[in-house]
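hey can u check if this looks right to u? its 187 residues, i copy pasted from the old doc so theres a chance i mangled smth
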Amino acid sequence: MDPGASDWRRIDLSDEAGVTGAQHVVVFVDPFTGRVSIAAQTAGGVVLIEELAGGGWRSRNLTQEISGATPITGSLFTLTPQDGLVLVGGKNADGDVVVYGMTAATGANGRVWAYDNLFQSQLRDNGLPVPELVGDLVPYVTSWNGLNVAAIDANGDIRVLWTAPGVGGGAKRTSPKPRTRPRLSAG
């Protein structure tokens, strides 16, 4: 395919889906429809923009739909596990790592999404210390379907929050501290 200028199209999703004030966006393919979806970080919460079968677009504010959800205010990311159920995450205003997760269920608004504050459910609730993350969140999925979110903390240490199939609850890990290690800084 020729990637020349004549092959590109322009879509004004702010107009088409009625979403304004987006600060950051991530894009993924909906595993059930095969169509493009976009998650936008806005002042009002995480807005899901979905392509419709007829080519139009619609938007849903997931933060408003899900009771107890908090808006993502920074480091927006997406992860796609092997089951295809997309996770959209980032940091909330308190600096906690939060995720919105697509489920296999459907409801009146379409695909049902869930929410989890990983720092609360996986660290605080288990009596574990919560790191102050200063760097961007870096998500990755391993070949064995381990879900990982890495970042640099205020001390320059690499921290990883992870889970994998067969792990009860969410497991946590920080990078090992060798005797001599380089200091890392965000930015």
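The chain has one domain: 5-174.
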